[in-house]
C-alpha cells in the first residue's frame, strides 16, 4: 500500500559529544557497573527473574533507608514522583500539610499538595540555615497538621537538616513526618526507623550514582495504616496500595499494575549492590572525608561558604559565594568549557548567590575534589569572568 504521510521522517543525526565530569548538584556520573547493568536484557513483568529483581531491590532499599517497614518500593519516575507519591497517598483534600521551607524542593511540595486540595501552611527559615526542633514543635502545636514535610538534604541551598528525634516530636502532636532525601541518602547518615520518619523518598541520580527515572519510597507502619484506611483516592499511577501488590511488599502478591522499566530496575539493583558492598558507614565516611578535603581547598582560596554553620553543610553539595563582581553563570560555563567539569550555579533562592558543587556517589573522591578545586583556582585568575 502507499501512504500519504503528512509528516516526513526527520533526519536524526547521531551526534557525538564529550561527556563532562558531573560535579553539579545532580545528576552524578554512573558507577561503571551500573552502565553495564543498563544493558542487561529486558524481561516481562510476569516471570521469576523479574520477581527476583524486585525482591532484591526491596531488600537493598530497606538497607539504605535503614527500615524494617514493609511498604518499601520504587516509583516509576524522577524524584518528583516520590514526592507526589508520599503526599498524595497520605493526605487528602482539606487535610493540613505543614511545610518547613528553606529551599526549592519544599516549594515544590507546596505546589503539589495544593493540586490535591491539601491545605498547606509554610514556615520558613533563612535559606542558608536549618530548623531547630523547638521551632518545628511550636508550629506543630499551633497548626495541628496531618503531616510535616521537610527536606533532609537540600541541593538548592547545600544544607542538611538534623532529623534525629523529629519523628517523636511529630508523633506527639499527631502528625506524620514526611522527608525528602533525594540528595542526601547514602551520602549522609539517615535512619528511617530510629528517627521516626513516616514517609521518605529519594532519587537514583545523586549519591546512588544511577540514572534518573526510578524513585525509592518507604512508609512506616503508622503511614501504611493510614493509607489502608484512607477516604481519598490518590492518582492510580501513584497508588501505594496497588503498588504494594505489584512490588510484593507483604510477601503474598505479584499483581500487575504497570510495566516497570527493566533497564532502570537492573540499574537500581546494581546501585544497591554497590552500596551493600561498600556498606553505609563507609559510604558516609567517604562523602564526609571528600567534602572536608574540598572545603579545606576552598578555604585556602579564601572563598566563603554560603552556609555559615559547619554542622548545617551538606556532605554531597557545597554552596560557595564568589567574590564580588563574579558572574556565577559565566564562571560555571568557563569551567565546563576549559576543564570539561560541570558544576552549577544557584537554583531557587540561591540564584545569583552561589555556586553549587556536588561531590557524590562515584565522584566522591579526593581526586575529583582536587580536579574541581584546581579548575576553580584557574577560573579565579580569569579577569573576564568578573
Ligand atoms: C537538582 O536537583 C538541582 O539541585 O539542581
From TrEMBL:
What keyword terms does UniProt attach to this protein? Aminotransferase, Pyridoxal phosphate, Transferase
- A Gene Ontology CC term for this entry? peroxisome
Q: Which InterPro entries match?
A: Aminotrans_V_dom, Aminotrans_V_PyrdxlP_BS, PyrdxlP-dep_Trfase, PyrdxlP-dep_Trfase_major, PyrdxlP-dep_Trfase_small, SP_NH2Trfase/AEP_transaminase
Residue ranges of every copy of the Aminotransferase class V domain listed in the record: 50-360
| Chain sites annotated for binding substrate | 356
Q: What is its EC number?
A: 2.6.1.44
According to its UniProt record, which reaction does this protein catalyse?
A: glyoxylate + L-alanine = glycine + pyruvate
This chain belongs to the protein called Alanine--glyoxylate aminotransferase
Source organism of this protein record: Manduca sexta
Amino acid at each position: 500500500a502507499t501512504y500519504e504521510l503528512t509528516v516526513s521522517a526527520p533526519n536524526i543525526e547521531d551526534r557525538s559529544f564529550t561527556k563532562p565530569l558531573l560535579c553539579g548538584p545532580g545528576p552524578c556520573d554512573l558507577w561503571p557497573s551500573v552502565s553495564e547493568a543498563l544493558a542487561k536484557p529486558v524481561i516481562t513483568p510476569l516471570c521469576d527473574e523479574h520477581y527476583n529483581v524486585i525482591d532484591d531491590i526491596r531488600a537493598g532499599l530497606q538497607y539504605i533507608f535503614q527500615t524494617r517497614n514493609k511498604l518499601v518500593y520504587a516509583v516509576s519516575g524522577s524524584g518528583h514522583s516520590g514526592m507526589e507519591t508520599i503526599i498524595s497517598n497520605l493526605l487528602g483534600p482539606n487535610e493540613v500539610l505543614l511545610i518547613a521551607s528553606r529551599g526549592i524542593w519544599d516549594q515544590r511540595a507546596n505546589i503539589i499538595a495544593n493540586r490535591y486540595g491539601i491545605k498547606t501552611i509554610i514556615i520558613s527559615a533563612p535559606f542558608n540555615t536549618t530548623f531547630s526542633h523547638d521551632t518545628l514543635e511550636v508550629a506543630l502545636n499551633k497548626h495541628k497538621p496531618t503531616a510535616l514535610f521537610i527536606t533532609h538534604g537540600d541541593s538548592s541551598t547545600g544544607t542538611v537538616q538534623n532529623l534525629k528525634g523529629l519523628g517523636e516530636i511529630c508523633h506527639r502532636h499527631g502528625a506524620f513526618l514526611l522527608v525528602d532525601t533525594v540528595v542526601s541518602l547514602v551520602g549522609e547518615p539517615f535512619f528511617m526507623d530510629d528517627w521516626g520518619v513516616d514517609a521518605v523518598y529519594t532519587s537514583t541520580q545523586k549519591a546512588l550514582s544511577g540514572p534518573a527515572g526510578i524513585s525509592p519510597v518507604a512508609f512506616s507502619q503508622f503511614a501504611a495504616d493510614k493509607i489502608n484506611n484512607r477516604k481519598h483516592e490518590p492518582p492510580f499511577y501513584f497508588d501505594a496500595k496497588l503498588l504494594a501488590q505489584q512490588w510484593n511488599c507483604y510477601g503474598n502478591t505479584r499483581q500487575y499494575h504497570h510495566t516497570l522499566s527493566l533497564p532502570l530496575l537492573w540499574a537500581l539493583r546494581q546501585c544497591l549492590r554497590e552500596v551493600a558492598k561498600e556498606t553505609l558507614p563507609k559510604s558516609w565516611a567517604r562523602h564526609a572525608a571528600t567534602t572536608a578535603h574540598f572545603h579545606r581547598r576552598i578555604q585556602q582560596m579564601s572563598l566563603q561558604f554560603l552556609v555559615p554553620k559547619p554542622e548545617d553543610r551538606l556532605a554531597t553539595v557545597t554552596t560557595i559565594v564568589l567574590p564580588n563582581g563574579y558572574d556565577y553563570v559565566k564562571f560555571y560555563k568557563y569551567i565546563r568549557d576549559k576543564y570539561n567539569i560541570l558544576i552549577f550555579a544557584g537554583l531557587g533562592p540561591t540564584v545569583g548567590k552561589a555556586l553549587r558543587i556536588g561531590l557524590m556517589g562515584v565522584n566522591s573522591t579526593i581526586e575529583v575534589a582536587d580536579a574541581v578545586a584546581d579548575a576553580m583556582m584557574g577560573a579565579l585568575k580569569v579577569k573576564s569572568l568578573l
